[in-house]
Write a structure and sequence with these properties.
Layout: E1 2-5, H1 8-16, E2 25-28, E3 36-39, H2 41-44, H3 54-60, E4 65-67, H4 71-88, E5 92-95, E6 99-102, H5 114-128, E7 133-137, H6 141-150, E8 154-156, E9 159-161, E10 166-168, H7 171-180, H8 191-199, H9 205-208, H10 213-220, H11 222-232, E11 248-259, H12 261-282, E12 285-296, E13 301-312, H13 315-327, E14 335-347, H14 375-395, H15 403-406, E15 411-414, E16 419-422
Helix pairs in contact: 4-5, 10-11, 12-13
The protein binds a DNA duplex (18 and 18 nucleotides) through residues 4, 8, 28-29, 33-37, 50-53, 55-57, 59-60, 71, 95-99, 187-193, 221-224, 244, 246-254, 289, 291, 299, 301-307, 337, 339, 341, 344.
Length: 428
DNA sequence: TCTGGGGTCCTAGGACCC
DNA sequence: TCTGGGGTCCTAGGACCC
């Protein structure tokens, strides 16, 4: 079973502000370089779509209401969504905040009928969460996902047409879809792969079934070839994976105005590092690999990464590594995006060594050789940092922070009542 | 019209070990 | 004197998903 919430972010915004109901609403970046993350069906009638630049969306629909997005709210709704699924079965796998795959095989002996379970689920999601959703039932992930897509409302000639809500894929329907769907409809086939297949004269799923896997592999690689050949036969052996654990954590930011020079980048990287470090600590994990990604104004990107022998979860340590990595990037253009990612996780308790205070003076040429830091000083620092984490968890991210995260403009403390600014002469 | 931010997975080359 | 094959790990880049 695949369940997909309709226009999720936009729908949550409408629930929280009923005056938006019936209006074209989009969630996404409203400023210069933003894109649409989610659009209400009213907005879709104008041709507004996810991933569309907001300026384009505004052109198509001048009265579009663009909201910045409140991910805490979406996460809260997502948890409630998962709670409802969990009542049916614990065997489910979320994909992002608004979709899940559920494995219904173990429900057979309980004599739960999939169609009835799907209908009941839809009713509960509608009544308890006040959200709409589509449900697909199929023999594997491939068909379940295609089915949930078919179950949804859609825009035809600018008019909204209701979906069936639940779609079950019969053997006949399987055959029909394999016959009539374009390759682009398949999971894993995006613009690049579709273009390659197009060149081979393979525009339809039925075409894939005729070409041998080896030929396919020489054009799209062995893994993709195997997947596509299987899909073309209606086969998909992907399991529903319960309790997937993240393999990387990162923070990407596209700047309103592009950055110039390594100093501006290093400044920005401090903020990124703090966000990544906080996420790491909240999950009691440390990362051995730190990656920076730089995207230039011409949209080319470069990445640099370094793997250490031990893990880090400290903003200063991560920022120091990021800074060294950024130093090896040739800045031939202005930079529109900077990302800092952490991967190769270890449990915090399994970590051999912690790298924290004082690392910023360490030359990275020593590659993983931590500067000797007095144990006392390190323990004191970690206690301080953990206390800061606690304050933030209780009172919000803006409650307390370091000056370096805020940049050269000085220390600013945001409160719910107002904003107090202190000049750069203040010593934090 | 001009391209987000959170992720996953794959590929290819190189270093290194046995 | 020149060179194998199996394997792991790391780095960089790219495609894709929501």
């Amino acid at each position: 079973m695949h369940i997909d919430l309709d226009a999720f972010f936009a729908s949550v915004e409408v629930l929280d502000d009923p005056s938006l109901r019936g209006k074209p609403v989009a969630v996404g970046g409203s400023q210069g370089r933003g894109v649409v993350a989610s659009a209400s069906y009213e907005a879709r009638r104008y041709g507004v779509r996810s991933a569309m630049p907001t300026v384009v969306a505004m052109r198509r629909c001048p009265e579009l209401i663009v909201l910045p997005g409140r991910f805490d709210r979406y996460e809260a709704y997502s948890r409630r969504f998962h709670d409802v699924i969990r009542d049916l079965t614990p065997e489910f796998e979320p994909l992002g905040l608004d979709e899940v795959f559920a494995d219904l095989r173990s429900l057979r002996r309980l004599r739960v009928r999939p169609i009835e379970a799907a209908e009941a689920l839809r009713t509960r999601i509608n009544e308890e969460l006040r959200l709409q959703c589509g449900v697909g039932l199929g023999r594997n992930k491939l068909f379940a996902k295609l089915a949930s897509k078919r179950s949804k409302p859609r825009v035809v000639d600018g008019e909204l047409v209701d979906g069936a809500g639940v779609v079950w894929v019969s053997a006949q329907l399987e055959a029909q879809w394999l016959e009539e769907l374009p390759v682009r409809a398949l999971w894993g086939v995006g613009p690049a792969t579709a273009a390659k297949l197009e060149k081979l004269g393979l525009a339809w799923v039925r075409d894939l079934a005729k070409v041998d896997e080896g030929t396919l592999a020489s054009h799209v690689g062995p893994s993709m070839a195997a997947t596509l050949s299987a899909f073309a036969r209606g086969e998909d052996n992907r399991e529903v994976v319960v309790d997937r654990v993240a393999k990387s954590i990162g923070h990407d930011q596209t700047f309103l105005r592009s950055l110039h020079g390594v100093e501006e980048l290093v400044d920005a990287a401090r903020g990124h590092s703090a966000i990544v470090a906080r996420a790491l600590r909240s999950q009691d994990r440390v990362a051995r690999t730190i990656t920076v990604i730089v995207r230039f104004d011409d949209f080319t990107s470069v990445s640099r990464s370094q793997t250490l022998a031990f893990g880090v979860d400290d903003e200063f340590a991560i920022a120091a590594i990021a800074e060294a990595l950024l130093g090896s990037v040739e800045l031939h253009h202005a930079v529109r995006l900077l990302a800092v990612h952490a991967s190769s996780f270890l449990e915090r308790s399994a970590n051999q060594m912690q790298l924290t205070f004082g690392f910023e003076q360490t030359s990275l040429s020593t590659r993983g050789q931590a500067q000797q830091v007095s144990r006392e000083r390190q323990v004191g620092y970690e206690a301080l940092r953990d206390a800061v984490d606690e304050v933030r968890n209780k009172f919000g991210q803006a409650a307390v922070g370091t000056a370096s995260e805020l940049g050269a403009a000085g220390v600013q403390i945001a409160t719910q009542r107002g904003r107090h600014a202190f000049g750069p002469e203040v010593t934090p």
